[in-house]
Design a protein that fits this description.
The protein is of the alpha/beta class. It has ten helices and 21 strands. Strands 1-5-2-6-8-11-12-15-16 form a nine-stranded mixed sheet, with helices on both faces. The longest helix has 14 residues, at 77-90. Bound molecules: aspartic acid.
Length: 355
Amino acid sequence: MNYSVVKIPSQTKKETKYSVLIIYTGGTLGMSYDDSGTLSPFNFEGIINELPVLKSMDLELTVVSFAEPIDSSNVTIDHWNLLASIIEKNYPDHDGFVILHGTDTLAYSASALSFMLDGLQKPVIFTGSQLPMGAVRTDANQNLIAALQIASSYDHRRPLIQEVCVYFNYFLYRGNRVKKVESVHFDAFESENYPPLAEIGISIDYNFAALKSVTASSPLQVHLMKPTSIALIKLFPGLSEQLFKHTLQVRELQGVVLETFGSGNAPTAPWFTESIKEAISNNIIIFNVSQCNGGRVIQGRYETSKHLKESGVLSGRDITTEAALAKMQFLFSTHREFEEIGTSLTTALRGEMSH
Ligand code: ASP
């Protein structure tokens, strides 16, 4: 996979400028309507013409564009690895990073990058938009400009944000806490279990208590994702016994994110409980995540979750499904031992779950 680089010269004459790298992956923000009315990605240079104000921002901007911008439904671990490698390569020379990404899978990518960028001490801000940049009432311009301002917010040469975040529709969120919850209105993202890191009005109001605080300096260590064999199983009344058993018996299966009801509850039918026990005895990791956006998994609170705990199912507490999948992919890419993966899965590594 390759990419191209474009420098946007700033028109301001100020000497100390923060340098921000914009990585354009695709998504609605940079799409245009073709003759049949379908949205498809276009070349990023066109976007700069759409937003000349970028040149008057007090920033050194460099734009890296995926050679083939994608609709984010096509995101793969190769794209995540490319993003992480671009950041690693440009880390010493840039003060912040803005990733322009389609909203559909943005929560997955922001979660993945939060795990892959170990020791991150600079802002990495994902954003996108619900309408393309050229649309009259677009949200793209505001989202991009605010993301750039946040990515260059420093206090005495120290970045205010030192983690992977999502900026969207006047709010800044921790990247591994968001979910896409809206496909029509502008408030596309929600972070039900962790407060916004900032709210944008006429000023940017940071919630300092919620920000990741870094004291000692640490080098950036990038971990690339490798192909894994994990599954997401969402429980529902009427789930086929056969299908469930077959999925858990797939030979390559390494782990399952199990989306359970309410506070982590699941059927107590013997076929279900036995299949879970058998899978765990075959070293398949089962990670319990709730179907509710808010609240948390508490295994053992109800009879219907006690058996999960007793069988060795791991509690995802208040983690999102998106972050749970990314975390599992990350751990299977970087760790080998079953025990070690289990311990890391239930430990907050990047603020993705509460204690
Ligand atoms: N389908 C688009 C994408 O995720 C939607 C968006 O950009 O908001 O790439």
